[in-house]
Every structure is written in structure tokens, then in C-alpha cells.
């Protein structure tokens, strides 16, 4: 009888496909678990800090809220869920005009021992921020892409751990509202050196995959 119960238990476990940036992983979702249980599992799987406020979207970028989550994934077990960091969106939305203007007003060379300073070449991003007073998911990706582009231009495709930390530190130095008050250094959501995770790390991994992708052989 016990063996039969174990079979029933194993069948009640689903493995949901989850995408964060360019990384896809299967996350275990057990029958009887809640939305918050799943969020905790995602944080552990992708290396998010406990303080991260995650947003779950479906394949059409529609937010999946807590009250419908369990029913939706049980009815659509093959759905690929998309994860976004709500905390960063809120922080970007709360940036004041002085922080925004500094994005174009300053540009100082960064050595390996100095925090990154924001570049001038981002007029379109500044226009969007000034007009909308907030950033969409797309604009946030644009900000990360801009920073990584500047990083790889100066340091190559494989910047050192220290260089990536300096860029992450530079972001929250230039924009204090982007600091995570619940993490040790405040910038782990951009780059966590211990785990090798964060928005900068994920973007660098995406670029590496594109560079090293083998061409398709002709028949």
C-alpha cells in the first residue's frame, strides 16, 4: 500500500518550464503547493535574492496573478512561464529627473578598481524615461544591454569578476533608487559574484552563446 501511495505522490509532481532572460530551466511544482511556494523555488533555481519581487508572465507577456496561477498551470502544464523582477521595475520607475539627467551628463573612464559611470550615448532611453516617467520591461532590457555593450567594448567578451562587480556597483552609485536594500551589497540583482547571476551576467551569457554558436553545415 505504501508503494502505491508513493506512485500517486510522484504523479502529482509537475515540472514547469521557466524562462528568465535567455535562460530556461525546469522548476518542480508539487500538487498542493501555492503560488508563493513556486516563487521561492524559482528564486532558488535562478539565484534571485530572497528580497526579489518576481513577476510571472505567460507566453503573451500577460501577468499571471496569484489567484489564478495554480489552476492555470494545472490546465496548461506545457506553458513556458516568463520571470521578471518587479523590484527593479519599481526602482526604475521611481528615478527622479536628476538621476535621469546624470545618464547623459557624466562619462568618466573606469579602471578595474573604479565603479562604472553611465555613458552619454543613450538619448532614446533618456527620452523614454523623461516622457513616460517609468520603464517598461523592454526599456529595462535596453538599459542592461547598453551597460553590457559598453562593458564588452572596453573589457572584451569575458570581463573579470571584479570588472562586473564594478559595473554593478556603478549602477547603484549613479542611481541610488536601484539599490536593493535587502541584499548585502545592494547590487546583487545586477551581478552576484558568488552565484554568477544577475542581469549583467545573463546578458553576457547571451552574447557568448551568439558569438560561439556554430554555423549550420551545408548539405
TrEMBL record:
Bias (Low complexity): 93-112
Alphabetically ordered keywords of this record: Signal
Signal listed as a keyword: yes
Domain of life assignment: Eukaryota
Annotated spans, Disordered: 93-138
Ranges of compositional bias, category Polar residues: 119-129
Leader peptide range in chain numbering: 1-20
The protein's name: PB1 domain-containing protein
